[in-house]
Amino acid sequence: MSADASDLSLVRRVQRGDKGAFDALVLKYQHKLVKLVMRYVRNPAEAEDIAQEAFIKAYRALPQFRGDSAFYTWLYRIAINTAKNAVVSRDRSPIEYNIDRHDNDESYEMQGRMKDSETPEGLVLTDEIRTTVNAAIDALPEDLRTAIVLRELEGLSYEEIAAAMDCPVGTVRSRIFRAREAIDRRLREVFEGGLGRAEELG
Amino acid sequence: MNEELDSQLSAMFDDQLPPGECELLARRLSRDEQLKARWGRYAVMGAVIRAERGVRLNAPLAGRVSAVLLAEPALGAQSLAGALPRRGLRWWQPVAAGALVAGVAAMSILWLRAEAPSVVSPLSAHLTTPAAGARERGGRADSYVVPPAPAVPAIVVPSTELANYVVAHSMYSSPVARRNLLSAFMTSEPAAAEEPQDDVKSAAQ
After folding, report:
1. Do A27 and B12 touch (CB under 8 A)?
2. Of A39, A76, A118, A148, which has the most beta carbons under 10 Å away?
């Protein structure tokens, strides 16, 4: 089993002209990329614009991607360069607002939100998604919760989780899948049902 | 939805699926909107667990990227169109180089033959000798004009230089072209150098 095999198989499909495979890559990495870009720009809407530009640049440059490095490493570099260029061009134009970089994360987020053009309903939906997922994780059996957290938060491989939890790799795979299924059952209703469903489900 | 398929999707999301299974699932994932939506929700779960602050979890980023890319040509066609001239050029480069070298070699042979009088001098000697012998034998002049003997002493034909040139540039010429050139040296030069000597011997006898 090789790391990055799934990304590489999607990349190869995109290189052969399958745009749908690129959607999957965007879906997988959009949050990570926005979070990464937010090290350079604090406004989430601006970070999303830069992330969008980075994805489009990556798509156009994909014929040159040979798979020597992991896809995300390659995408990461594109995003960093795009963010740096955006900051440079923004600094040349009048500054929108000044950020004290020693403030805590809460105030960054608040400042970003205050400049955000998104509707209040959109912000509430993000909060609702967060609440739903956290509630679903709390409701998981201990072994499932440990497996999914080790995977998502610590980034451990299945082998490493198996060693940590003293169980076979197949069991880890099954636990992570079952944890996701349990969370997804609740999350799907939020996405499909919209605002207010999370409270009913919680 | 098939539980085994969803289990594979979860493993693929974590890069923990064997490459062969990844290929098959990637194909399905790129076409199946339901599967893609589930894949997207797995990403949302990860973002929440990592507590990625400030990231909008319902952001329509993927939809926006997809909308922009709708106007873009598919990469397969793009890269194929870009690759064809390059591949063609690569294929023709050695052939063109070989043709060029062969042309230069041929021109050099022609030029050297035109420039070097010694190449024909043994032949002229071959022509004068029987005429002189007939005059001695019968005292009767022949009806044809005998070319005068060369004033310049015979020079060694620079066939070795030509051969060296061809060998030195053999990497650019095809084996057939090389063989043709070398066989041309072998047949023309030794014949030019040896035949008159034989004729001189026979005339002396």
Report:
1. no
2. A148
Contact A31, B47 (CB under 8 A): yes
pLDDT digits (tens, 9 = 90+) for B73-128: 888 765 555 444 444 455 556 666 677 777 777 777 777 777 665 544 444 444 44
**Considering only alpha carbons, which residue of chain A is nearest residue B52?**
A35
- Inter-chain contact A153–B57, Cβ cutoff 8 Å? no
For A180, other C-beta atoms within 10 Å of its C-beta total 28
CB contact under 8 A, B65 and A29: no
Query: Domain locations in chain B?
Result: 3-114, 155-190
Residues across chain A: 202
Interface of B with A in 67-86 (CB under 8 A): 68-70, 72, 74-79, 82
For chain A, which residues score pLDDT lower than 70? 1-3, 93-119, 122, 194-202
ipTM: 0.83
**What's the Cα-to-Cα distance from B27 to each of A155, A194, A198, B35, B65, rounded to whole Å?**
26, 30, 33, 11, 20
